[in-house]
Design a protein that fits this description.
With 213 residues, this protein is mainly alpha-helical. It has helices spanning 2-11, 14-18, 27-58, 63-91, 99-125, 132-161, 163-170. Helix 3 (27-58) crosses helix 7 (163-170), helix 4 (63-91) packs antiparallel against helix 5 (99-125) and helix 5 (99-125) packs antiparallel against helix 6.
């Protein structure tokens, strides 16, 4: 379970992976991509930092520390998703085939994902960090919910990556994969210079028999 949660959290980085395609020729499409990516850059960074906080806080951390880290991270990601939805709205209808539908679908999916992250935050906040066994069990439920949200993220942004629109965004600095600005801490941290690829536990140490999946 432990690795499952960290892996799912890393899945949230699908946003920046989605925006790493090829190149594009249309000026209008490029203009739209620049408008969106300029607005999206701080939100993409915010998400990357949130993922890094969770991964860095994971191993050997106290339940209360994990709870606080997850709660803040979920809030940050929810806020970032709402801001990304606003960025898609502000950038206007993408100048591609079915542009209006694309814009509408992406905005709806991002806002729905934000609501789901809000719910995860409430779920984490409700856990009792004084009971390590129950906390670990509750965190497993959070991991299961997070896996579903990851799929929502993928569905939302897969729409943007299609064809020339995704190609145009790939050229924009604002849509490039960021380096987390949160300094790694603890034994769970990735090595300096690496991206946030989780391999550590996000469940507090309780008993040797505690599930790691």
């Amino acid at each position: 379970m432990n690795k499952k949660l960290a892996a799912a959290l890393s899945g949230g980085a699908v946003l920046v992976l989605v925006l790493s395609g090829c190149s594009d020729d249309g000026d209008k499409v490029n203009d739209w991509a620049k408008s969106f990516c300029d607005q999206a850059k701080p939100q993409i960074q915010k998400r990357a930092d949130a993922h890094q906080i969770i991964i860095s806080t994971a191993a050997d951390s106290r339940p209360a520390e994990i709870q606080a880290a997850d709660s803040k991270a979920f809030k940050d990601i929810a806020d970032a998703d709402r801001a990304l939805a606003k960025a898609v709205e502000t950038a206007g209808v993408p100048p591609v085939e079915n542009g209006e539908k694309t814009q509408k679908d992406v905005i709806a999916e991002l806002n729905a994902t934000a609501v789901a992250y809000d719910a995860l935050k409430k779920q984490v906040d409700a856990l009792d960090p004084s009971n390590q066994q129950k906390f670990a069990e509750g965190l497993k439920d959070v991991a299961d919910g997070l896996t579903k949200i990851e799929k929502m993220d993928q569905n939302a942004l897969a729409t943007l990556e299609n064809g020339e629109l995704g190609q145009a965004m790939a050229k924009q600095p604002g849509c490039q994969k960021p380096t987390p600005s949160v300094p790694p801490t603890g034994s769970a941290s990735p090595k300096a210079g690496s991206t946030a690829t989780p391999s550590a536990s996000t469940t507090p140490k309780t008993k040797p028999s505690a599930s790691a999946e």
